[in-house]
């Protein structure tokens, strides 16, 4: 039992290591803390591809967090900080890249595909409707008899059941 | 016309397949540098060998390779003999000792030979940040006017030098010697 407790305590310590991307910064205000959190979550770590710089343990992400903290403390705006990083690392660092000629497909692609899907759906629906309206070559009398026959057979079937 | 409609799914499939096939051979780790065709960022840092400050102005006059390295960087060790060889053939190579211990850097250079003309010491990584460095080794091609013209991320081996860097370096040398 005592052993188990020791193992658990050790595991708890290891948990702390796994979440090491937590720095101790003191902020002037809660608003500044929120801005720091927002910026580090919106910006992408250049080294680790699919992590933001808030989550990453890469040394470069740590440096960038320190830099963002420094700039925030110096009173720079969010846009200034993002521009500063884009100037050095390119649009890659932004999870939301700006709308330019090169990113047009990225931004509008999904909407275009969705619209295309609706167009195809519309065409199919319209075509089906047209098919249904085509008469089946029976006169009004014949149509009525057909309906009666069908009604009778289905009535018979329910009685037999 | 009706027949063509049946070909649409096939065409869509072929389009997507071509797109994805191309994607197989793209390296997502390779970021296009934001600094191409921009001047080398301003800095004033001391050298690895002595305290004499080096600035971006010292990089002008001759085309050069600016190599970001550190003794902590395993890949830099693989790259080092190649840099020695390139430097021996007369290529102008500058170093940026990125986030490193200066004593370790000096020992490294005396142990493995020093290929660098100028060697900038950047212990805080400030110049590295301005250069958009995200992992050593990285190598920049800088022209005689101090403009960054090309960036290679990763090890410079014989093949990278021969196929990617050497022709571009030669072009910069030709540009510099042209009136």
Give unreliable regions of chain B as ranges: none
Task: Give the count of structural domains of chain A.
Answer: 2
Mean pLDDT of chain B equals 90
Q: Overall 3D geometry of chain B? A: elongated
Total beta-strand segments of chain A: 0
Biggest pleated-sheet summary of chain B = 5 strands, mixed
Radius of gyration of chain A: 33 Å
Q: SSE string of chain B, helix = H, strand = E?
A: HEEEHEHEHEEH
Give the strand tally of chain B: 7
Question: CATH superfamily name of chain B?
Answer: Glutaredoxin
Helix percent band of chain A: 55-70%
Show the largest interface: A-B, 15 and 16 residues
CATH homology-level superfamily of the largest domain in chain A: Cytochrome C biogenesis protein
CATH topology of chain B: Glutaredoxin
First-residue to last-residue Cα separation of chain A: 69 Å
CATH architecture heading of the largest domain in chain A = Orthogonal Bundle
CATH topology-level name of the largest domain in chain A: Helicase, Ruva Protein, domain 3
Secondary-structure element string of chain A? HHHHHH
**Order of adjacent strands in the largest pleated sheet of chain B:** 5-4-3-6-7
Overall mean pLDDT of chain A:
82
Which segments of chain A are poorly predicted (pLDDT under 50) over 5 or more consecutive residues?
Answer: 16-20
Question: Any descriptors?
Answer:
heterodimer, A: mainly alpha, Helicase, Ruva Protein, domain 3, B: 179 residues, alpha/beta, 5 helices, 7 strands, 41% helix, 18% strand, elongated, disulfide bond (chain B), Thioredoxin-like_sf (chain B), cytochrome c-type biogenesis (chain B), disulfide oxidoreductase activity (chain B)
